[in-house]
Input
Amino acid sequence: MVLDKKVAEQTINYLTQINAIKLNTKNPFTWTSGIKSPIYCDNRLILSYPDVRKFIADEMTNIVKKLYGENISIAGVATGAIAIGAMIAERLDLPYAYVRPEPKGHGLKNQIEGSIQEGSNVVVIEDLISTGKSSLNAINALKSEGFNVMGMLSIFSYNFQFANKKFEDENISINSLSDYNSLVEKIESEGSLNEIEINRLKTWREDPKIWK
Output
């Protein structure tokens, strides 16, 4: 869910300005999952632009503070949200850890890196929510260690209904600074793509697994 339309619009503006969001309806990108997509979102680029990373971290901090208060810890999802998560935790003076996709194969074999008090309320920070698989993997890793996951906040979400259903089934609330709807609205208002291309963007989001 996007909580503030103006913040969503500014986030999309920044992501497109720094080329973090790339569009190609004719020669789609291929995700790790095998899904063919007309959009590729690389939010790691945010860290290279001081004004952009400050805006993102400030707005996410405001949302965390408003929704979850102070009696929490912050966990970032590796690797894309490690830095942003740490910036939010620093602004709120809160404990912080990050969650690997899977436990390390050596050393202490940790999946959760950092020290958060056992049983803590945790807000998870994600850079991007797509199919929900990696995001829920991090959430379940925290749950398995006894943490109470309060919710997840991301920079951008594709807002797939099948992914949203997964979070609902796990009773996890999700919010994002911006989403795919915000992006399409911006494209339509600017007229940067023709009607056929816009329709392809819309039909892709309806069912990306069969989109061609």
